[in-house]
Amino acid sequence: MNAMLLPTRKDEAWRYADLDALARVWPVAAPEQIIVASGQAETRYLIQSAADGAVAIHQLAITLEAGSRLDFHVLNAGGAYGRVSLDVTLKDGAHFELGGVILGTGEQVLEIVTTVTHAEPNATSNQVVRSVLGGHATGSYLGKVAVARDAQKTDASQSVKAMLLDRTATANAKPELEIYADDVKCAHGATVGELDKAALFYLASRGLPPAEAKQLLLQAFVAGVFEGAEAQEALTSAALVKLGAMV
Amino acid sequence: MLQINNLHAMVGGTEILKGLTLSLNPGEIHAIMGPNGAGKSTLSYVLGGRPGYDVTDGSVTFNGADLFDMPPHERAAAGLFLGFQYPVEIPGVSNVQFLREALNAQRKARGEEPLSGGEFLKLARAQADAMGMDMDMLKRPVNVGFSGGEKKRNEMVQMGILDPSLAILDETDSGLDIDALRVVGEGINRIMRKPDKAVLLITHYQRLLDYVKPDFVHVLADGRIVRSGGAELAHELEREGYRELAA
What we know:
A: alpha/beta, six-stranded parallel sheet, globular, B: 12 strands, 38% helix
């Protein structure tokens, strides 16, 4: 793909994008490069809380050298269109950990798009994404795991769960595997659900007003994702502010 | 305190309560007994305000106010506690966090100051101790991984913390072994056996009544109270079975 041409719906990675919004900021800057040196461990986080109506595109190209580790946490919650895309290449024995939360309401289109390439043996990756979507919002996770021919002992997992607050909201979850090695473990799971009505009534029967009860359940739904993050407090409190506005 | 007058209620298009009349005064413990399918659990859910239970006729007043004018959380703030036959598991939400928020929501609704974290923990610890429940358990997610007996103990700890004026306890004795039954029975007496409080004890078996002596016993059959008497009626039921008495 020519980097200067606006993507279309035929481009798999842009299938659920808000292309009209994208056109307003196109062309976007080249991806930010992150290289974690051999044997090093790094943590990064991103709070995407752009103003209402704004378009926020964050593209990162990440290389994890042999034996290195990166923990990446992202909250994708702001703007009319917010996209976080990560292109990760893992060398021998490296580990990539992604904890992502998408919180969308109104007409927001928010997405986390990852390509994790296990280029060499023994690398591991774990991606956890939780979305809460209300109104007419669309939240998408497109996650491709590619395992190169000789990348034996790859262990990759993806867990994607979405909670819809309204039937008018949309959640897309698309884990994708492309495996050319034979001794690998790739697990993925995706669910879309609604708030548990029995739990809501139980909380109400103890005196919690509906909005507080919902917020408590949603908080529990996303809380684990930021556990142990470098900026756990900042990520969690930004998520709570957004959740508070959504219920 | 609670006046139920000619109550009719439907669940899923079927009439379950068919003209139930019952009155509870402060200082009284009433037991409602009846065969499976008589409407015992429906009565507790209707009084608690569970969605899906539709009142089609009759009235219920609680301390002079129309109970059906209040959503479930307002009923709780007004002093009503519903003990669940099957307490709900809520992953990710800790007992103490949920109970503190619930208690403070009730206090706020009553125009009282919220309890601080320290004050609340002191109260929670005292109530957990009284029910022989480990404080660590109270910090775990609500009812997750609890045995049947532990869930019922947890209901009693919650009741002790929330300190209601009226408790409606739906088959609190189900799933309890003989030791747990005694502990739960003592808990009900300790928390609720007071001149300004009342209890509606819904049960299938007489055995809980060995520990919590009712002032009145009612037989519920086919959506109505068909017989009322003193504590001796429970023993009669145990001997004769429901069929004879309800006829």
